[in-house]
Amino acid sequence: MLEVVCGRRPVEPRASPKEVILVDWVFECMERGNILEAIDRKLGTEYAVEEAELALKLGLLCSHAIAAARPSMTTVVEYLEGRAQLPENLVDIIKSQDFGGASNEEDVLPTTTTSLTISEPFTSRGR
Q1: How far apart are CA 47 and CA 14, in angstroms?
Q2: Distances (CA, A) of 28 to 17, 50, 79, 105, 116
Q3: In CA terms, which of 12, 68, 75, 79 is 20 to 30 Å from 86?
Q4: Domain limits of the chain?
C-alpha cells in the first residue's frame, strides 16, 4: 500500500538519509503532522485526500514489526470501506515495540466476527 501511494520502493538507497526506509519516512511525515508529504508527486492533485491519508496510515499499521499490531485482511477491508475507523492511538500503536503479551490482533485492534479457514497451503507446489 505504501509503495503504491508513495511511488517508491521499500528501501531507496539513493534517497536522503531520512527517506531511505519507506516505512520510517512515512511515519516521520505523520509525526510531523504532514503525512500527505509522502504521496507520490506524480499523482498531482488527482486523488482523494482522505483516501490517500487512510492508505498511508493503514500501510504503516500493516507494516508493523509486531504481528499482533497488524490488522487482519478482514479488518483492512472494513477500514477501506469505512465500516471501521483506525484506532485513535495509531501513533502509539505504530511506535510500540511491546504489546504486553498480546498474542493476536484482537488484543490490540477492534475485532471482527468473520472467520477464515484455510484448507490448502499458500505455497505453490513447485512453482
Answers
A1: 27
A2: 12, 19, 22, 24, 35
A3: 12
A4: 2-107
The three cell numbers of residue 70 are 497488524
Tens-place pLDDT, residues 22-32:
999 999 999 99
**Residues 6 and 22 sit within 8 Å (Cβ to Cβ):** yes
Q: Read off the C-alpha cell for 37.
A: 508529504
CB 19 within 8 A of CB 6: no
Report the CATH fold assignment for 2-107.
Answer: Transferase(Phosphotransferase); domain 1 (1.10.510)
Q: Are 52 and 45 in contact (CB under 8 A)?
A: no
Highest mean pLDDT out of 66-75, 92-101, 105-114: 66-75
- pLDDT number for residue 49: 93
Residue 91's region, left for phi above 0, alpha for psi from -120 to 50, else beta, is alpha
Q: How far apart are CA 48 and CA 88, in angstroms?
A: 21
Grid coordinates standing for 30? 505523520
* Statement: the pTM of the whole predicted model exceeds 0.85: no
Question: Could you tell me the pLDDT band of residue 96, with boundaries at 50, 70 and 90?
Answer: confident
